[in-house]
Each structure stands twice: as structure tokens, then as C-alpha cells.
Amino acid sequence: MADVVVVGAGLAGLACARRLQAAGVAVTVVEAGDAVGGRIRTDVVDGMLLDRGFQVHNTGYPEAQRVLDHAALDLRRFSSGALVRVGDRLHRVGDPRRVPTWAPATTLAPIGSLKDKVLVAALSAQAGLQSPDALLSRPESSTYDALRSRGLSQTVVDRFFRPFLSGVFLEDELETSSRFFDLVWRSFVRGSQCVPAAGMRALPAQLAAGVDVRLHCPAEHVRARSLVADGQRLHARAVVVAAAAPDAGRLLPGLDVPQQRSVTTHYHVAPERPVDLPAIVLDGERSGPVVNTVVLTNAAPSYAPGRHLVSSSVVRGDASEPTVRAHLARLYGVDTAPWQHVAAYDVQAALPSQAPPMGRLRKTVRLEPGLYVCGDHRDSASIQGALVSGRRAADAVLAELRGVPFDA
């Protein structure tokens, strides 16, 4: 049917297929679902764009800069900072180099001492200037232990880093590897957080353009150079499994599959904007289950034209709508009773855990001749990791097809 069959039309599988196709290899992607994207999907509900779980793209991802056309995505940016609820109001906390007008408010924000803020600035400058290899060579610990060992106080960890990173790592104990934290922080310093005007679905849709993707075609059994998909045996010179980690583990017995992090995201429509800024809102006092919330339409009005769409995420604790609504009233300081609940997405396998020891960041993509695997569970748990993993798998396949050695 093709030189190579890729199982899964998520970012990793599509990136792999595009690279192989650009090298002149005939590729077919088989996808069990009804659309491309894997975990990155966007539903249209009553004229609104609802991403399946709050997700953002980072323009600082090097691989994304190489394989995506950012201009065509019409990216809508969030503020380079956050609104942190402490006491009776929201405090602006941002990088003064990115948002100079926030500098006075950041200096006065009750998230830690002046020393803490100087240390955060130094940490950001160091992360932005160092290469990924240099950051990965640093001693590894949990993110919590790394922050404390770098001189940051318990106050700034609890009031800023913990609520902010909970929404990134999908865990609130900061047990994620310090090496992954350093890579993530580097991307925040060097790039902007944004969403495409057409929803996060625009990323996989762009990658899928011109690729032979067969939807509603679930893979049932996989082995080197062949697989059974939708009841039919398919043969190829190589098979690449680019499914999400749990599905990859099912198709490839013995594959090391990391623990998965979950998240529940609620969408509400508010009659009035609870805040005017396109900024993430955090709870510096951790008084409820919501780890982050944002008025999406402040950044991307196209998500709900003429309306105010609020996205709020929970990673642990009571994620029931009444509990979330009550916490949002506290966070925004407004009456949320008139808010309309639009939808809730409970994503059980949202992100692979990156708890230490990470060991080798880039896990092998070549399992045996004719059989490969890729996905963010083989690299960093991010859009960057998925795209890099897809490229690595494609390069390993190309090396095999050409009969040249390759360190996969």
C-alpha cells in the first residue's frame, strides 16, 4: 500500500509522515478517529470553538518554527504574565522585559520578597540564554527541590510557581523533573503563548495538508513491516506507531509507557468580561480546585464571536461544575451565577508524566528493523517533543530504507 504506514494522525505521526513524504517516500497514515489531531482537537459548539482541554501553542518551540507556518495559523497571543489572586484582588505578575508596563505591579505583588523576584528574573535570563543541552546537563531533582535549592522562598513557590506550573505539568506537587522544568521555562522566556484563531485544531490540520490520511481506520495488531488495520492486513517497508502512549503500549507489548496525567476543563460563557486582559488567572492561595482560568476571547475573539468564553482547568480534587463555578467567583471577584456552562472535557491521558529520573530525554524510536515508535512519550511531554519525535522517527526510517547507519 505504501513504503511506510504511520499509525496515528496526531502531531508526531503527521510530522513523521510529512518528513518522509518530503524525502520522496510514499506514506499512508491510518487513524482510528474521525479527524486528525490526536489529543489536539477542537469542537464547534453553538458557533464556539472548544479545544478538548485547555491547550496553548508556544512560538518559542524550535521544531514548531521549522515545520509550522505560524503566519498562516493567525496566532492570537496571551499576555507574557499572569493575574494572581492573593487576598482581595488580582495582582499582575509578568516578565518586565516582555511587559514593561507590568514592572511596578510585579515588584509590589505579594507573591514573594524582592529577593525572590530578582532570583526569578535571573532564573529566566539563564534559561533563555542557555542551550537545551546545557540545561539537560544540570543535576536533576524534582522541580520543587530545584526551586528551593536555587534560593526561592516557600512563599513564591506556593503563590506563583505551584499554581502556574500545575496547569503546565498537570500535577500540583511539583514532582516533575527539574530538567523538564528548565526546558519549559526556556520556552516561556523565548516564545509567546498563543492559540490559532481557528482553534488548536489548526496545528494538525496544517500538518495534514497533502498527506494521505485514512480516518476511521483503527490499528489492531502491529509488527515489523505489517499491521492489521480496520480488519485488513497491510504491508509496508516500515511501520511507525505514533499513537498516544496508552494505545502505543497496547499495540507494542513491552513498550515503556509513562504514567499519564489527567485534566478536566470547563467552558463557561459570561455575560460580561470578568477581566479585560488576555492573561492566565491563578490562585496564589490555592483556595479551590481550579489551577488556571482564562477569558479565551480576550486573546482570540474568534473562539466565541460576540461572547465572553472562559476556560478553566482542574487537575486534582473536585472538578464538579458547581465547585468550579464557586472557585471562579472567588478568583475573578464576580458573581458567576449568571454564567452559562457550555461543556466540560475530562481528558484522562492528557500528558505523559515527566517525573525524575528522566534518564535519556530522547528515548529510542527504532524498536527493530521495520518497526518504529514516536510521540511525546518518547521525548519531552509537549508539542515540541511530539514534533521532534516524529522527525527522529522519520530520519531513522529513511536511514533504514537507504541502508545507512543511524542512532535512533
Q: Output the CATH class name of the largest domain.
A: Alpha Beta
Largest sheet, if any? 6 strands, mixed
Percent of residues in helical segments? 25-40%
Quantity of strands, as a count: 21
Low-confidence spans: pLDDT under 50, at least 5 residues?
A: none
Structural class computed from helices and strand pairing: alpha/beta
Roughly what fraction of the amino acids lie in strands? 25-35%
Total domain count = 2
Mean pLDDT: 95
Radius of gyration: 22 Å
Question: Which CATH architecture of the largest domain would you pick?
Answer: Alpha-Beta Complex
Widest sheet, order of strands: 10-2-1-14-21-20
In one word, what is the shape?
A: globular
CATH topology of the largest domain: Polyamine Oxidase, Chain A, domain 2
Q: Quote the distance from N terminus to C terminus.
A: 25 Å
